[in-house]
């Protein structure tokens, strides 16, 4: 019996010295992939689902417009608003905003700008079509309706 | 050196894993893996107010009408329905109808794989040919239509086209959609897929009634 006990004692010691290394590796992975949100989202964002998603390869070309009901309804009302960068803007300011975003790009890339429209699923088509109209005015015609993937049930 | 010296030389690394775990969990929770994915759409160029939009003569049979009202009900080719199920198959059949093909369209038809050729019903009430000016999908919404339903319909239309494109080059719609066009081979596949079958999706100005 005593012989048996001795043997198990030697075997139960799992070497854990490599554990911190593994954890650190994971940690670094997440630190590198994390994009800390540089701006606060002031509107509600329940991104709609879709199946036919595509990806834009060059992320620097993307500018984001957030559309949805303001989170702070006492301050901004309950109608859907547009957020660009970190302020709420009106539909009429979109042209100006697009031109500012275009100025941030290099000369050659200016007409390749993509607008990613992150709209809440409860927004109606009225404000969306107003935004589309303004984007056409601003000649930023590449629009992406941001959406999250849905698993097809068939 | 004695036993004591050796003891003090070792740094206590046992809690290192705990600290790392704590940090790891922090980053796990705060991470939102940025997904820049979505449905792409190219808007039409802006209209010149002095110049009326060019009148394009299109036969009614060449337009696949999808109307969405403010209750998110659909009217597809004059037929009422309340879900988008099966819409993409109908669009596929509409686009590949080849009801009245001209010479170029016949050449296009002959270049298609048999699986797509089999979809051509050649019905005189459906589209003439899938080339430009032949088959147009028109989506018209109301200002009160929800964005979600609109996107659902657009999703179905895109699906139909991606499946056609994919099948032309021997891929599934899924695989075709994942092509990035960054390598020459992928670009060639993409061009071959959509050659002569443009994604003709017309998104009309929404109605103002009832909003």
How would you describe the overall organization of this protein?
- Chain A: It is found in: Cell membrane.
- Chain A: The chain crosses the membrane at residues 12-36.
- Chain A: Belongs to the ExbD/TolR family.
- Chain A: One of its GO terms (cellular component) is plasma membrane.
- The complex is a heterodimer of chains A (154) and B (211).
- The mean pLDDT of chain A is 83.
- Chain A has 154 residues and is an alpha/beta fold.
- In chain A, the strands form two sheets. Chain A has a five-stranded mixed β-sheet, covered by helices on one side. In chain A, strands 1-8 form a two-stranded parallel ribbon.
- Chain A folds into two domains: 2-33; 49-149, 2-Layer Sandwich (Nucleotidyltransferase, domain 5).
- Chain A has helices at 2-11, 19-33, 73-76, 94-103, 125-137, and strands spanning 49-50, 54-55, 62-68, 81-84, 87-89, 114-119, 142-146, 148-149.
- Chain B is of the alpha/beta class and 211 residues long.
- Chain B has a domain at 60-203.
- In chain B, helix 6 (147-168) packs across helix 8.
- Chain B is elongated and about 90 Å long.
- The termini of chain B are far apart.
- Strand 2 of chain A pairs antiparallel with strand 1 of chain B.
| Number of structural units classed as domains of chain A | 2
Number of helices of chain A: 5
Strand order of the largest sheet of chain B: 4-3-2-5-6
The secondary structure category of chain A is alpha/beta
GO biological process, one term (chain B): protein transport
Subcellular location (chain B): Cell membrane
GO molecular function (chain B): transmembrane transporter activity
Keywords (chain B): Cell membrane, Membrane, Protein transport, Transmembrane, Transmembrane helix, Transport
